[in-house]
Design brief:
By secondary structure, the chain is mostly beta strands. The chain is built from no helices and six strands. It has a four-stranded antiparallel sheet, with no helix packed on it. Strands 4-6 form a two-stranded parallel ribbon.
Length: 96
């Protein structure tokens, strides 16, 4: 199955450097994110509901960059400002 036809979930290994579309109905997250091959797909920083990713554009040129160790892996997707109206989860315990 081509990478463009496959969806990925939180914790899966990123199969290729690229721009991935983000699907998450609980909060307003960025629509796309750049992820690096062999990292794990990040979770939502606010909840444990599923986040789905779809490869939008592969960045093959990054395969030839020797020093990608200077990057900081993305482990959580931040909530976009102004997303309170779309928030369908309960507040975190420290927000009560």
């Amino acid at each position: 199955m081509p990478l463009y036809d496959k969806t990925f979930q939180i914790g899966d290994l990123v199969p290729a450097h690229g721009i991935y579309e983000i699907f998450h109905t609980q909060h307003l997250l960025a629509q796309q994110v750049v992820l690096f091959k062999s990292e794990k797909f990040p979770k939502c920083s606010r909840c444990d509901f599923p986040v789905t990713f779809l490869l939008h554009h592969e960045l093959r040129a990054l395969d030839y960059v020797n020093d990608l160790d200077i990057r900081i892996p993305l482990t959580e997707l931040p909530i976009q400002s102004g997303s309170a109206s779309l928030d369908t989860t309960l507040p975190l315990s420290n927000e009560i």
